[in-house]
Amino acid sequence: MRKENIVINVKDVVTRFGERTIHDGVSLSIKENEIYGILGESGSGKSVLMKEMIMLLEPNAGEVTVLGKTLNGISYRDAQFLRREWGVLFQFGALYSSMTIAENIEVQLKEYTSITKEMRDALVRSKIALVGLDADVGSLYPSELSGGMIKRAALARALAMEPKLLFLDEPTSGLDPVGARNFDALIVELRAMLGITVVMITHDLDSIFSIVDRMAILADKHVVAEGTIKNVLQSQHPFVEDFFKNDYTKQKYGLEGKVENV
């Protein structure tokens, strides 16, 4: 049996903003090639934790290790290496409004590679096709796209450097139910095709039950549950009870009479 490869390890992370403590000893681990969800109550620091994983923020204490490199005191060279190894889709896409979609996707290729313009254009076209957009979308500006198309265009940009890790912040928020499920299907397809590891912040129950392999639940400044949906449903923490074990969720996902025995 192949040994499971941990690609992200968070150990005893403490995060404070002034006198306010957001994380007080948060620990979790993410395995290679899984789709890992980060859930939690409002203000629990989900996005903050993701930003610490991608070096946009630094925790006050504890340790974050990504692809074998500890982020505490990381060298400039190693930091630049890691930035090539991950792609990020922020909640609202965060596309540059003054650039076309093709130019948005090309940004990292220009910054981190020395390939020719012709090769960059070919890669941009391939990424646009990869996320299911028509070729002519590349010449459009973000303001000319629908919400679902913006998500896909931002995903194409996140995949520009062929990353090993893909970070998604509320990827289905703002999408209609059909668009959200199509986006979920695309993430699963890309994981299988590219062999990437996906880390996603989400509150979307359909995503949680259909595509997430394992998850961490943040509440009360800690990880109060981690593992598969089966593992998480064993928790009796109030947030888990309210989020997963309410009457609506039990009925919609066939959990009636099963939660206690999952």
Write down the overall mean pLDDT.
Answer: 90
Shape: globular
Which percent bin holds the helix content? 25-40%
Tell how many strands the DSSP assignment holds.
10
Topology pattern, helix = H, strand = E? EEEHEEHEHHHEHEHEEHHH
Compute the CA-based radius of gyration. 19 Å
Strand arrangement, largest sheet? 6-7-8-3-9-10
Helix/strand/pairing class, anyone?
Answer: alpha/beta
How far is the N terminus from the C terminus? 26 Å
* Count, helices: 10
Please report which band the strand proportion falls in: under 5%, 5-15%, 15-25%, 25-35%, 35-45% or over 45%.
15-25%
Q: Poorly predicted ranges (pLDDT <50, ≥5 residues)?
A: none
User: Quick one: biggest sheet?
Assistant: 6 strands, mixed
